[in-house]
Amino acid sequence: xxxxxxxxxxxxxxxxxxxxxxxxxxxxxxxxxxxxxxxxxxxxxxxxxxxxxxxxxxxxxxxxxxxxxxxxxxxxxxxxxxxxxxxxxxxxxxxxxxxxxxxxxxxxxxxxxxxxxxxxxxxxxxxxxxxxxxxxxxxxxxxxxxxxxxxxxxxxxxxxxxxxxxxxxxxxxxxxxxxxxxxxxxxxxxxxxxxxxxxxxxxxxxxxxxxxxxxxxxxxxxxxxxxxxxxxxxxxxxxxxxxxxxxxxxxxxxxxxxxxxxxxxxxxxxxxxxxxxxxxxxxxxxxxxxxxxxxxxxxxxxxxxxxxxxxxxxxxxxxxxxxxxxxxxxxxxxxxxxxxxxxxxxxxxxxxxxxxxxxxxxxxxxxxxxxxxxxxxxxxxxxxxxxxxxxxxxxxxxxxxxxxxxxxxxxxxxxxxxxxxxxxxxxxxxxxxxxxxxxxxxxxxxx
Length: 447
Hints:
Blueprint: H1 2-15, H2 17-44, H3 46-53, H4 58-71, H5 73-90, H6 95-119, H7 122-145, H8 159-189, H9 196-232, H10 235-262, H11 264-271, H12 279-294, H13 296-311, H14 316-340, H15 345-365, H16 374-398, H17 409-432, H18 435-446
Subcellular location: Cell membrane
InterPro entries: Lipid_II_flippase_MurJ/MviN, MurJ
Function: Involved in peptidoglycan biosynthesis. Transports lipid-linked peptidoglycan precursors from the inner to the outer leaflet of the cytoplasmic membrane.
């Protein structure tokens, strides 16, 4: 929703604050009505839904559907919170939206700690609801402080709102394509050796960590500015900040992908090995994660390309490319599994699909005046590979370290020290190569 809401909100804000406030109120009202209706339907059919999506039966099914009736309320809270977060980001307020998810985690942890003995599993439900309310309230209060006070508007016959609705529907379809693609991957993994689904699932979880930390952070910060320049028709500055975003991704993700690639085995040994998850399962997960990491930079650039089109209020191109990505990924996965019978095919299919889509994105972008500074990006890429040299030397010096099997404080201590040293090496490389000045320049441009 953020990608559909923010460009339209910024466009309305350029007209006047009143236009922006009216648009904001319409979207909030629409969300409350639609999501409340969906929640009512899902609560009414909660038992049937849980029967279809889970393996719970009998008394466990009753318990799951009962808990589901309460947890579903979080959808409304997080939906409204995402709109408030978009508004705050458009006013260059980033800390509150980025901090609010921490309150959810803290609320769940504290609720379990203090209420588990009395309420059991329901203590987690209490934590989710309270955390969702806190997320909602803190962002709503900050929106009120900048002058956006909500009042219901039931007239939805407005051109800007209808355009928002159209773009939002495109994004829902894109999300649907992504879900289908992932489910196909899991279905294909289920045809392989026992444990392949768990291996793939765990690899995806750890692959998404750098995506969430680096790509999402960069996109969150530069997307409001991209939307602003697009609404002003300032294509030169829009292209400039788009290229800066790509360069930031290269500077950050090339060395981070390398570090996760070479240290994947001890990291996953620490976090995964134990219980029913054997050393062999961990080794398989390491291989899958490493193939995912090869495409990390490309998947992030693919996402930034989509943000560019969202900023210029064009949601059709990202929709078509998400469909194209899904088709390529599924075709490669199906034939790869058929001929090679290994779960490693699935991350390779994803990485190859992202690369193909980026190449096509680039040529399509020329029609939309996207000026991708390839020469500068190549220089940035070379500098990023230079940072890998000392990181690799440090890894080469320590690669024969003996690790305990599974979690141990010795493993945790060693990985912590290694992580700190790698960060210091990386910062020194950034400083010597002048990368720090690039980040300062980008920060000044955003603010």
